[in-house]
């Protein structure tokens, strides 16, 4: 096989033997020619092991498998087993041949829209970070600031310089939404979207959009690594994802973080000037973020046990300012989403109600239908808290005091409202039975961001 | 101890009972355990499918139309095949998560003790083998693992020639497929065949047929799942 083709296909990858589609004799010669290098799959340092693909170190997520050649027990990683089993005695292979020269594109960006002043400032900062090969930069932009558009000049610059770019996000939904937008914005560039159900899996494009899990197969691959929603679950709670993201970046590459709600440690780093950042305080349409209203319901727990929305909810629902706006209802659990949706469609026969949650097979279609205004009320869990845009909605949270709604989640959920320039406002109501610290902090954070954006 | 499926930490309950008698080691957390359904109630005496009659309609049909005597005396299955089971099996068998099989050890062992303990003491457990190619691919035989859970001597008396996966075939293809099994040594003790899934019963009957031909007096089967 042609070496440039090989380097395009396998450069920057870390793969199991069965993932490398080369027959044994050729692979042997490539190994001898040092085009591929084996590296140990599981590193052991008593008493710990670490899977070299996913970074897993948890003892309960390692298993022992009797080898059918030698009869001994070999350790394997149970965490990333869905991507093929990593066993101690069979190495992972890394491409060590000549590096692939990615083409330099002239004016790759075909996007014709215009950035607002605030967006442009952030975009310029991103471009300079890429050109100067800065180590990292965090872009803190409020919900609905138009983060994706701010990236376009940076991505265009990187492609002009012949760099390889990766946009990683914690959720497959976001990959699905982002890919068509980027395809439009960079119409001459081949873009791959990788997630666990995607059609293309080989990850051989210059510009890749991926879920953070799919980064497990990359090593020293990208010059520019863009991590969307750094604060989102599971990126923050699962140590293997930052592990994979750091490994997938080339030495001297740039990591760009994007978030609307930086976590405490990132905020601390920023105030200590350890983490360079750029702040975008205004939504792209120039209106402030809607500030949530608290609504106390004394019998909330009792109501929800019977899967009935509280009375206050119906009272608010009928007295909304804009009755024709669609409504997003967030609930803490999947079970509740289904039962509340049923109850609502029984109580409000004039409106069509649907539920969407993580274990729903038709979740894409439902979200599409809701966007197309085919039904009026969508009951959902935190899966729709970020990364999705509905033009004109009001937002309600039932049981906003639940532990699943932390500060970041509440800010993100509130940010679903008023995202369209045609309808830049929206009502956000937290129904609760006792305000929590997260709720108070979320409102404080929103007000602060509005203040920084010049609204009083 | 962590749950083998969801990896949630499990805290063993402490009571006077567990102080005096050690509690049964658990490999699955209660909520994952709940997702699996053990087959209970009246079932077909032949194939273990839920049925109000002594034999289910399939088995009666086979009895009327079969060309030869059924080599398999009966099959007993432990679990019903539901979505969670499907996920667990695919992770265990196809992804190759060896340890996950241990989640079934207790129930498999109990099913043997409650339902098949009448078998003679010299009974041998024979796991349904994998072909050499499949074995190289997976690295372990899930049926062998199940056989090791039983209080019987387990011997790998069968070999198998390589075919397409059973699970990729239609019912008709499976029922009419040729026999892939060979016996490595003659057997004169009763045999308990061990496999993970009973779907049409063709695999087990093929294995039972060659065993009987080589002198085995009686063949039973204990399968983990009734598909």
Main features:
heterodimer, A: 456 residues, alpha/beta, seven-stranded parallel β-sheet, 13 helices, 20 strands, B: 227 residues, Rossmann fold, five-stranded parallel β-sheet, two-stranded antiparallel sheet, 7 strands, 15% strand, globular
Write structural notes for this entry.
The complex is a heterodimer of chains A (456) and B (227). With 456 residues, chain A is of the alpha/beta class. Chain A contains 13 helices and 20 strands. Chain A has a seven-stranded parallel β-sheet. The longest helix of chain A has 16 residues, at 437-452. The radius of gyration of chain A is 24 Å and the shape is globular. Chain B has 227 residues and is of the alpha/beta class. Chain B has one domain (41-226): 3-Layer(aba) Sandwich (Rossmann fold), CATH 3.40.50. Chain B has a five-stranded parallel β-sheet with strand order 1-7-6-2-3, sandwiched between helices. Chain B has a two-stranded antiparallel ribbon with strand order 4-5. In chain B, strand 6, helix 9 (202-213) and strand 7 (219-226) form a beta-alpha-beta unit. The two termini of chain B are 30 Å apart.
What is this structure's SSE topology?
The complex is a heterodimer of chains A (456) and B (227).
Chain A: H1 3-10, E1 14-15, H2 24-32, E2 36-39, E3 42-45, E4 48-51, E5 62-66, E6 73-77, E7 92-95, H3 117-131, E8 136-141, H4 147-160, E9 165-169, H5 172-185, E10 191-194, E11 207-211, E12 222-228, H6 240-248, E13 249-259, H7 264-271, E14 277-280, E15 293-296, H8 300-305, H9 311-318, E16 326-330, H10 334-347, E17 353-356, H11 363-371, E18 377-380, E19 393-398, H12 407-414, E20 428-432, H13 437-452
Parallel strand pairs in A: 8-13, 8-14, 9-11, 9-12, 10-11, 12-13, 15-20, 16-18, 16-19, 17-18, 19-20
Antiparallel strand pairs in A: 1-7, 2-7, 3-4, 5-6
Chain B: H1 16-20, H2 30-35, H3 57-65, E1 75-80, H4 83-94, H5 105-115, E2 124-127, H6 132-138, H7 142-149, E3 153-154, E4 158-160, H8 171-176, E5 181-183, E6 191-198, H9 202-213, E7 219-226
């Amino acid at each position: 096989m042609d070496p440039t083709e090989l380097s395009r296909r396998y450069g920057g990858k870390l793969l199991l033997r069965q993932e490398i589609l080369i027959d044994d004799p050729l692979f042997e010669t490539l190994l001898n020619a040092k085009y591929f290098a084996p590296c140990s799959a599981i590193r052991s340092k008593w008493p710990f092991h670490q899977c070299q693909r996913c970074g897993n170190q948890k003892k309960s997520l390692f298993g022992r498998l009797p080898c059918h050649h030698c009869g001994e027990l070999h350790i394997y990683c149970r965490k990333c087993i869905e991507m093929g089993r990593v066993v101690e005695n069979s190495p992972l292979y890394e491409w060590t041949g000549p590096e692939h020269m990615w083409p330099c594109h002239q004016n790759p960006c075909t996007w014709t829209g215009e950035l607002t002043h605030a967006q442009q400032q952030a975009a310029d900062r991103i471009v300079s970070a890429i050109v100067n090969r800065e180590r990292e930069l965090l872009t803190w932009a409020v919900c609905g600031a138009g983060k994706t558009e701010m990236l376009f000049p940076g991505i265009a610059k990187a492609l002009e310089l012949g760099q390889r770019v990766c946009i990683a996000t914690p959720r497959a939904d976001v990959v699905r939404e982002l890919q068509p937008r980027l395809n439009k914005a960079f119409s001459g560039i081949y873009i791959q979207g990788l997630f666990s159900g995607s059609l293309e899996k080989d990850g051989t494009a210059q510009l890749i959009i991926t879920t953070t899990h799919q980064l497990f197969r990359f090593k020293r691959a990208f010059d520019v690594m863009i991590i969307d929603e750094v604060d989102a679950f599971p990126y923050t709670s699962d140590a293997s994802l930052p592990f994979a993201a750091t490994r997938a970046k080339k030495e001297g590459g740039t990591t760009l973080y994007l978030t609307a709600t930086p976590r405490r440690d990132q905020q601390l780093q920023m105030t200590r000037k350890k983490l360079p950042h750029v702040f975008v305080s205004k939504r792209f349409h120039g209106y402030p973020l809607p500030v949530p209203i608290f609504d106390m319901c004394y019998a909330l727990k009792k109501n929800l046990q019977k899967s009935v929305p509280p009375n206050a909810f119906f009272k608010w629902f009928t007295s909304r300012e804009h009755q024709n706006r669609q409504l997003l209802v967030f609930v803490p659990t999947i079970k509740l989403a289904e039962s509340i949706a049923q109850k609502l469609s029984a109580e409000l026969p004039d409106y069509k109600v649907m539920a969407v949650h993580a274990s729903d097979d038709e979740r894409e279609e439902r979200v599409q239908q809701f966007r197309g205004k085919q039904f009026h009320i969508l009951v959902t869990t935190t899966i729709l808290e970020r990364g999705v845009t509905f033009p004109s909605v009001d937002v309600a949270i039932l049981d906003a005091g639940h532990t699943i709604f932390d500060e970041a989640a509440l800010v993100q959920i509130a940010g679903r409202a008023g995202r369209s320039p045609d309808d830049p406002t929206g009502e956000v109501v937290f129904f609760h039975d006792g305000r929590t610290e997260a709720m108070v902090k979320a409102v404080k954070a929103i007000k602060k961001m509005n203040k920084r954006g010049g609204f009083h | 101890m962590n749950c083998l499926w969801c990896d949630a930490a499990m805290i063993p309950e402490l009571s006077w009972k567990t102080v005096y008698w050690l509690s049964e080691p658990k490999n699955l957390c209660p909520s994952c355990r709940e997702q699996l359904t053990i087959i209970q109630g009246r079932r077909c005496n032949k194939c273990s499918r839920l049925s109000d009659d002594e034999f289910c309609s399939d088995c009666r049909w086979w009895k009327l139309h079969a060309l030869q005597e059924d080599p398999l005396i009966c099959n007993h299955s432990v679990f019903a095949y539901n979505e969670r089971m499907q996920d667990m099996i695919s992770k265990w068998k196809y992804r190759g998560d060896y340890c996950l099989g241990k989640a079934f050890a207790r129930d498999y062992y109990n099913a043997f003790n409650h339902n098949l303990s009448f078998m003679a003491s010299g009974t041998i457990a024979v796991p349904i083998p994998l072909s050499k190619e499949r074995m190289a691919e997976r690295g372990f035989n899930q049926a062998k693992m199940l056989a090791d859970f039983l209080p019987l001597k387990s011997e790998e008396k069968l070999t198998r020639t390589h075919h397409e996966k059973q699970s990729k075939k239609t019912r008709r293809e499976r029922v009419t497929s040729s026999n892939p099994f060979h016996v490595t040594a003659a057997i004169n003790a009763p045999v308990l065949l061990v496999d993970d899934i009973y779907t049409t019963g063709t695999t087990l009957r093929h294995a039972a047929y060659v065993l009987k031909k080589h002198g085995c007096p009686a063949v039973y089967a204990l399968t983990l799942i009734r598909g």
